[in-house]
Amino acid sequence: MRKVFGFREFRPNQEKIVRAILEKRDVFAVMPTGGGKSLCYQLPAVLLPGTCMVISPLIALMKDQVDGARANGIRAAFLNSSQLPEERESVMRELLSNSLDLLYVAPERFTFDHFRELLGRVNISMAVIDEAHCVSEWGHDFRPDYLSLSALVSLFPDLPVSAFTATATHRVQQDILDRIALRNPLIVRASFDRPNLFYDVRFKEKPDAQIVAILKANKGKAGIIYRTSRKSVNDTAAMLQARGFRALPYHAGLSDDERKRNQEAFIRDEVEVIVATIAFGMGIDKSNIRFVIHADLPKSIENYYQETGRAGRDGEPAHCTLLFAQGDIPKVRFFIDSMLDETERARALDALTRVTSFASTSVCRRITLLNYFGETYPHENCGSCDICTGTREVVDCTREAQMLLSAIVRTEERFGATHIIDIVMGSANQKIRDMGHDQLRTYGVGKGQTKKYWRQLADELLAQKVVAKAEGLYPTLYLLPKAVKILKGEEQIEIVRVLEKKAARAVKG
Ligand code: ADP
Ligand code: ZN
């Protein structure tokens, strides 16, 4: 480890895994991104005679891994469809002459008879399935060609087979174990805590301005901005470019060429920021990402964890901001409702509920994330999320809620949040005058608070199921049973408020 890799000590679990493999035992390891999975098989690959074969799903990932291994003097190569036939033949010759420690292959190779036949003639020391969650349909990036790997163990009856993943849910873990059928494997589950990541959830108000503020606080540092749609990716990238930031877009609608160019520019630090859909990220081995911004709601807690997990792989502090507004939910709902497959729809809906609850509660973000993965965090205060660092406070706003609710009642539940807020703030616009709403008793009662305050409160009333939004051409608000109790003063309502100054400091880390 010291001589070849230049590391002074093992990270948690690495030694245990290396020893098991050297004893020819199968291994199944779940370790978070940045946990140091590569060493777990690359070190045995160097120590054992023969070639260690690593099945890896992504071509880009393979090349990085091979480059990294070669830089350490390991004899490594890869085989995949991106190569010319001559290149592949040259790698096969190296393999046959026993001059490779490490060979990365794409899963589809196993469907070729001549590749299987070749394997019979070479000296393989061990097999590794990297990103093993790709075998599970429950995972976030299932790959059909990974299913062929269930035959791997029978293909190598006498060799140790190990499987690695950073995907943490127990369901996916069980699914992988069921499908790959390892033989009495050593099972390692590392902690999923990423102590160097700061988790921050902000009320999404003016996303462009909020993104710009974070970029300014992180000048010159590398970051990823995740957005849901290709259009918003393009718009945000253009907005940032116009303001002089070096930012590039990344999504499945770009040509392969452009995607590759933009990704490379980001990896080589030629641009600071990549604005991307979730198509970006898997296998991005960039260790110095200092911030990740989710400007839209992530698809699931799992996605959120993986996407934020790309920050701070070098162990240095990194900041993860989620911009969240209840108003984003209907868009996602609309998309989910249009899904044809019923199981998939139910799954997506469940994921949405969990992710919104993560963003809306005032419980430590780290505790919520780790709980999701079945892990108990040993402290009450993580000291490194918006909740625990007190960048928020809980405020009783029953009186203000009553103002909004009463305005909704007095206008017979026929208006949306914007108009209701105009009423309580006493705005003198045309619509208010035309409707005669400046004559209402609630008109102008809430002058003392800002528009932002009222919008956040309205958002909160939706989140806490005090009011609901009627679907239709104009989304109008109507009262739910809880609203009646609040109006009568039988129930209180509290909101979690961001304390702006402290929050700004937290961004700077
Ligand atoms: P993973 O694949 O689990 O995300 P990597 O294998 O890419 O993680 O390792 C993450 C980073 O940690 C890499 O930069 C790697 O060089 C470094 N690393 C791995 N093991 C050790 C160790 N024992 N000591 C110091 N750094 C390590
Ligand atoms: Zn916390």
TrEMBL record:
Pfam family name, one: HRDC
Primary enzyme class: isomerase
Cofactor or coenzyme needed: Zn(2+); Mg(2+)
Domain Helicase ATP-binding: 18-186
Catalysed reactions, semicolon-separated: Couples ATP hydrolysis with the unwinding of duplex DNA by translocating in the 3'-5' direction
GO biological process, one term: DNA replication
Organism annotation: Chlorobium ferrooxidans DSM 13031
Stored SUPFAM superfamilies: HRDC-like, P-loop containing nucleoside triphosphate hydrolases, Winged helix' DNA-binding domain
Span of domain Helicase C-terminal: 206-356
Protein family per UniProt: Belongs to the helicase family. RecQ subfamily.
Keywords on record: ATP-binding, DNA damage, DNA recombination, DNA repair, DNA-binding, Helicase, Hydrolase, Isomerase, Metal-binding, Nucleotide-binding, Zinc
InterPro entries xrefs: DEAD/DEAH_box_helicase_dom, DNA_helicase_ATP-dep_RecQ, DNA_helicase_ATP-dep_RecQ_bac, Helicase_ATP-bd, Helicase_C-like, HRDC-like_sf, HRDC_dom, HRDC_dom_sf
Protein's name according to its UniProt entry: DNA helicase RecQ
Gene3D superfamilies xrefs: HRDC domain, P-loop containing nucleotide triphosphate hydrolases, Winged helix-like DNA-binding domain superfamily/Winged helix DNA-binding domain
EC number(s) reported in the record: 5.6.2.4
Gene Ontology molecular function, alphabetical: 3'-5' DNA helicase activity; ATP binding; DNA binding; four-way junction helicase activity; hydrolase activity; metal ion binding
Any one cellular-component term (Gene Ontology): bacterial nucleoid
